[in-house]
Write a structure and sequence with these properties.
Layout: H1 3-32, H2 35-58, H3 63-67, H4 71-82, H5 89-104, H6 106-134, H7 136-164, H8 168-191, H9 196-213, H10 234-247, H11 251-270, H12 276-282, H13 293-303, H14 305-318, H15 321-345
Helix pairs in contact: 1-2, 1-4, 1-14, 2-4, 2-5, 2-14, 6-7, 6-9, 6-11, 6-15, 7-9, 8-9, 8-15, 9-15, 11-14
Protein name: Unplaced genomic scaffold scaffold_309, whole genome shotgun sequence
Keywords: Membrane, Transmembrane, Transmembrane helix
GO biological process, one term: endoplasmic reticulum inheritance
Length: about 350
């Protein structure tokens, strides 16, 4: 077997193992010990991820992915050992400060998700426009796909409405969001600064968030509320672990985590293409995108994605269901506001220097 293929498989397996360990260890600590223990483990994992990302940035070796696998069980054991008896005051203080960091970082995560979602929708709109300009057959296919997206979004919103509009304030916010989306879509069409592909993608984004606002809270329980103590043999251990994974991992958190990390990943790939023509005209001798500010930002996001993963996941786990709902409404309103500003102040789609923005 080719050594490169073997090493690549080992590296990808190590990365998958790292993701699964983080997904399990954080809620497990929150369930079995306490919130301060969870915060300490989150702080240790974040510190490790920061060091790992810096070494990757400087060294760039795949061996680091394999070498870090034993670190997560080690940090978990350190946390359990630290909280098995009286907690040192310095550890309690560190956990308290980390709690404040995660809390005050909440608006940043919401802003990143909203901006990334808008960038992704506009990129899909640009790609759809380019395909439509190539052949009329593509135009028909794009119209059908956009219509399907609108129908799916409408069905999704109708299905989620009873739970999402459970209170007068929630129903009011839902009505405001839908009305604003419809008005912005009409305004965007009138100003020729958006198209049906971009609008349909944002309708799916709106439906997804409304669905999360009304996610059936009875479908999951608080990880700290129904944990069964481990017994003294391996089979009950495994049964308890399987029961924990099946019933106690907060499903809305996992859905929100997957979407947030995925959309930020997509947006980081889109960033270097923004303003490409302008940058190239300013520096015609440039060898590529490596010196662009957006490319540097992309490299930082991709290098420290494990740190972002740990911090976003920790923040979501700390939120109670009610807080998650209000952060979700904040995300909807922020994204619609950002889209409205972009539609009003953005340049016309006919400008060749802004090819990334669609008509």
């Amino acid at each position: 077997m080719n050594p490169w293929i073997l090493w690549s498989a080992l590296s990808h397996t190590a990365r998958l193992s790292t993701v699964l360990q983080i997904l399990l260890y954080l809620p497990l600590t929150l369930a079995t010990l306490s919130t301060p223990a969870f915060l300490l483990l989150s702080l240790l994992l974040s510190t490790h991820s920061l060091i790992h990302g810096t070494l990757t940035l400087l060294w760039g070796s795949r061996a680091l992915s394999v070498m870090q696998v034993p670190m997560h069980p080690f940090l978990l054991l350190v946390t359990f050992n630290a909280f098995s008896q009286s907690v040192h005051p310095m550890l309690a203080t560190a956990a308290s400060w980390w709690d404040k960091v995660l809390t005050f970082s909440g608006p940043t995560y919401v802003a990143m998700e909203g901006i990334s979602s808008l960038l992704f929708a506009q990129k899909i709109g640009q790609v759809g426009k380019e395909f439509a300009d190539e052949a009329e057959s593509y135009q028909f296919a794009i119209l059908i796909a956009s219509a399907v997206a609108y129908v799916v979004a409408a069905w999704w919103i109708v299905a989620a409405y009873p739970a999402a509009a459970a209170s007068p304030l929630s129903s009011t916010l839902l009505g405001v969001a839908l009305t604003a989306f419809l008005f912005l879509t009409v305004i965007g069409f009138r100003l020729r600064r958006t198209n049906i592909v971009e609008s349909s993608m944002l309708s799916l984004f709106l439906a997804y968030n409304i669905w999360l606002c009304g996610f059936d809270q009875t479908s999951f329980s608080d990880p700290a509320s129904s944990y069964a103590p481990l017994l003294f043999n391996i089979l009950p251990h495994l049964q308890t672990l399987i029961n924990f994974i099946t019933n106690n991992l907060p499903k809305p958190v996992l859905v929100a985590l997957f979407y947030r990390l995925s959309i930020i990943q997509f947006a980081s790939r889109i960033l270097p293409t923004i303003g490409a023509d302008v940058w190239e005209s300013d520096d015609p001798v440039s060898d590529g995108w490596g010196d662009r500010p957006t490319s540097r930002l992309t490299r930082i996001l991709l290098t420290y994605r494990q740190l972002i993963f740990v911090m976003v996941y920790s923040h979501l786990l700390l939120l109670d269901p009610t807080s998650q709902v209000w952060w979700r409404w904040a995300n909807i309103m922020f994204t619609l506001l950002l889209w409205s500003v972009e539609l009003v102040v953005g340049p016309d789609g006919d400008d060749v220097t802004t090819k990334w923005k669609v008509e």
